[in-house]
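During data preparation, a discrete fold description was generated, as reproduced here:
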Amino acid sequence: MSIEVNNESAVEVDEAALQRLAAFALDMMHVSTEAELAILLVDEAAMEQLHVQWMDEPGPTDVLSFPMDELRPGTEDEPTPAGLLGDVVLCPQVAGAQAEAAGHGLMDELKLLTTHGILHLLGFDHAEPDEEREMFAIQRDILVGFAVAERRR
């Protein structure tokens, strides 16, 4: 599995942990080990530019997902085929403010946002209540499973 993490923000983060989380999430979703994913961390100005350009929304946001090959979750017997999953773009400055408001650390927020972004790349959405319940349940399962796996590491 090719997972590239590039930090272009001025915020120091545990890039290796984000890479391990992404690998864990993709494995849980039965995505091919031949799939490719990029995670990019950018500053507020770069995120605002992307947010305006692609979502026509003002200001920076926490996470944006840019799917490439429109891969979907696989099954244990039939994993997702190889391909370019896409890009997850994170803004640590926005995530930091959200983490503070939620009462947890920056890395916890970035893990949540990374998982959220990956699920969007796999076709999940939260526009409707039933979609939100499904997506957020999977997101929670991935984060809890990853936390358990990390404690065993």
